[in-house]
């Protein structure tokens, strides 16, 4: 059973930065797909970013392109989400998720139904 633990959330002013971490209980295999999702109160969960473990290919929602960066560190079994130029509309609970058999289509990296394992979430609040 793969376990995922997110950390790094908090309160930040608009224009500020945060780095979220997602640490897995075991080594990321080459086929793993890791995604970051978020859910604001009263809204559906939306895909933010994804990464293919093997070759490091990355995928982003239009709303975060140019502001968020996803990366991985094999040695630490950790995937990061660097969030810059944060806006109040980025406020949400952020979740990481994993699919151990990989995801073939790039557009599916931001679809929550493609993932089997989920972390407990970390709150990000952007407010002055």
Summarize the entry for a quick read:
Helix content is 0%, strand content 45%.
What is the fold's blueprint, element by element?
Blueprint: E1 4-7, E2 10-12, E3 18-24, E4 33-39, E5 46-52, E6 58-60, E7 68-73, E8 78-83, E9 92-99, E10 117-118, E11 122-126
Keywords:
seven-stranded mixed beta sheet; four-stranded antiparallel beta sheet; 0% helix; globular
How would you characterize the overall build of this protein?
- This protein is an all-beta fold and 128 residues long.
- The protein has no helices and 11 strands.
- The radius of gyration is 13 Å and the shape is globular.
- The model has no long low-confidence stretch (mean pLDDT 94).
How many helices? The count is 0
Please give the share of residues in helix.
under 10%
Characterize the biggest β-sheet: 7 strands, mixed
Number of beta strands = 11
Broad structural category: mainly beta
Give unreliable regions as ranges.
none
Radius of gyration, in Å, reads 13 Å
Helix-strand pattern: EEEEEEEEEEE
Tell me the β content: over 45%
Average residue-wise pLDDT? 94
Overall outline:
globular
What's the end-to-end separation, in Å? 40 Å
